[in-house]
Amino acid sequence: MTALEFNSQLAQAIKALKPFAVRLTKDLEDANDLLQDTMYKAFTNQEKFADGTNLKAWLYTIMKNTFITNYQRMVRRKTFIDTTDNLHYINSTASISQNIGVSSLAMQEITEALDALDEVYRTPFMMYFKGFKYHEIAERLGIPIGTVKNRIHIARKELKDKLLKLGY
């Protein structure tokens, strides 16, 4: 295939490649850039194209590989790698100061929300919170395991609603 024939077939293939580029990039400008990169690579690597094979398939492969390479490059650029020597300082809790007033107020409001629960829901919930298994709670309270699960679910839901109203 002569260079003129190759260039002519490349120009004809652009119309077929553009929808694929748009589908890959999901952006028209990026698709145009990808299409341009693909055509440039195809033109500069013309000698690698085997005469008598499917030119469009070759171009689709170049486009797909170019897209993947560009995507991986973009992901690497956005990845932050901390190269500091003293990594133990990053997660050090020695310099953290706690606002005890806010946390004690929050605990007080959570306790009040728990106390406001009906006893029939609060008891299984608190037992589960303390680490009892469903079957242990059912045995101690003398109720079916399904009832235990239901009461714990209702207690969670009511607590969630009350705490959301308080802004938690």
Walk me through the structure.
The chain is mainly alpha-helical and 168 residues long. The chain is 71% helix and 0% strand. The model has no long low-confidence stretch (mean pLDDT 86).
Briefly characterize the structure.
The protein is mainly α and 168 residues long. The protein is built from seven helices and no strands.
Relevant terms:
Arc Repressor Mutant, subunit A; mainly alpha; 71% helix; 2 domains; Rna Polymerase Sigma Factor, Chain: A; 168 residues
The first-to-last residue Cα distance is 71 Å
Strand content: under 5%
The CATH architecture of the largest domain can be given as Orthogonal Bundle
Let me know the CATH homologous superfamily of the largest domain: RNA polymerase sigma factor, region 2, helix turn helix motif
CATH T-level fold name of the largest domain: Rna Polymerase Sigma Factor, Chain: A
The best one-word shape is elongated
Helix content bin: over 70%
Radius of gyration: 32 Å
Largest sheet: none
What's the total helix number? 7
Tell me the structural class.
Answer: mainly alpha
Number of individual domains: 2
What series of H and E elements makes up the topology? Answer: HHHHHHH
Give the uncertain stretches in residue-range form: none
| Overall mean pLDDT | 86
CATH top level class name of the largest domain: Mainly Alpha
How many strands? Answer: 0
